[in-house]
Fold each of these.
Amino acid sequence: MKNFSRLLVLLSFGGVGASASAQSGWFSPNPAQGNTLWSVAVLDSTTVVAVGEGGIIIRTTDGGETWKVQDSGTTSALRALSFVDASTGTAVGFAGTILRTTDGGETWTVQSSSTTKDLYGVSFMDGNTGTAVGNLGAILHTTDGGETWTVQDGGTTVGLNQASFVDANTGTVVGFSGTMLRTTDGGETWTQQANSFPNDLYGVAFVDANTGTAVGDLGLILRTTSGGQTWRQQYNPAADSPLRAVAFVDANTGTAVSFNGTLVHTTDGGTHWIRTNTGTDRLFGVSFLDSCTGRQSARVVRLSAQQMARKRGHSKRTRSWRRSPAPHC
């Protein structure tokens, strides 16, 4: 059985035509039924879940050989996923939609969110404690696995795109117009952090209370080692397009993906970023299983509005992906 132990998973919008697919070595099972996919989570070496427009949820348990559309119970767009282990996860989306799974995404239960605002991001630290963020400054918090959600005041009406928590108390949220919010008490209070860059921010990833990376419009990459007290811009070799998502597995190893289909990867905490052209466009999500995932990728999964295409590493016609130095895995 093939698996994801050496696989980087990306999400994108926009299809690849038949001739382009033949030339680049992509093929198209089309499990997403034409829906744009916005977020993805690698749960283990064979299991991946992705969500998107129209309430679509797709899942594979055999390393992407086959995909199954799951019953989400909603037609609202699903914009973000957060899993705390291989079983327990939460998806959020438009009109305050929140879904919960405790069986690795096989079945989902609709939860009451107490809001109708569109939700764009979610971060859980354990099975009980999580935060969802979204349009018009929406911040929701739960301490009981989503049985109840409490509205929190972030002091802004700017749209918030993503949250990253490192424990039950410490988290950072990013949004439009360079908005950055920080909490150290589980969201009881939020502090707006100084940011000299007005770019819209779409993704954020913290690996501990101090070390984090935020990405956004015009290819902006910001790095902090002080819990957000100060942010330093890092050089991005793919600064010609907005960065839509970022994932780090430790303080050094991370990947960000862009609207024009390129990705950048670092193994030294962002001191150097290496650009890779994927041959696709409009990448929206990225997920790692561990520090080996993607860095030694022989195959890439691409989930798109028109198709889900799997790039076959053995194809002589496949466009090459430049690999970063492989870790000792």
Note: Residues 18-24 form the longest helix (7 residues).
Amino acid sequence: MIAPSAHHPFKSSPLLLAFRSGEIMRVPAGNVLYRLGEPATHVYWLHRGAVKLLKADERLKPRLLHILGPNHPLGLPDLFVGSYLHTAITLDYSLVCRTTQERILQLCKRHPDFVVHLVQRLDRKLRHAEQRIALLATHPPEKRVQHMLYLLHQELGLDREGYLNLPISRKDLAELASVSTRTLYRILKKWENRGWVHIDRDRLRILKPDELFHGIQEIR
């Protein structure tokens, strides 16, 4: 059940101009915001919570591509394609703002700075995608798991005890890193023995992020 909210938490910024008159929704975990292939009629802004993006593989089996935390637009590139490129499902109780395709296109026409901002965002998204493709193609499993955890650490943050702010199954972690669950567990146990992480069912505690993420270069 997606419930509208009277409270509007979004402040002005180049992209958030499009959401100032949008619909605020409180969305429980497990709700679908939009599905792959549906007409891209709306764009979403994730203010609080987490969303996973899935896309069908060559066997038409849903494949987990990304997990996104707060302060992300959802469905923005899809707007210019005409249909949604992924399925977006909430992983946690989320606060989401939804605006229409017409609103985004109006801002593009009226505000050149807004168009520049969109191009910069899409360029950054493309470079991240290219980096991930290169990583999966050329790096060993341990490096892929390291990079995947780094991205989740950046997206979701850690609580006071060092746990990722969202429980994530080993199956999802393995899928994000394109490794088997057995390989993932072997790598995490190796890092646990070094004192870098602690495995606790579907929760992962990062004890020494400096050692764990040493050598990673972030694309901006």
Note: The mean pLDDT is 82.
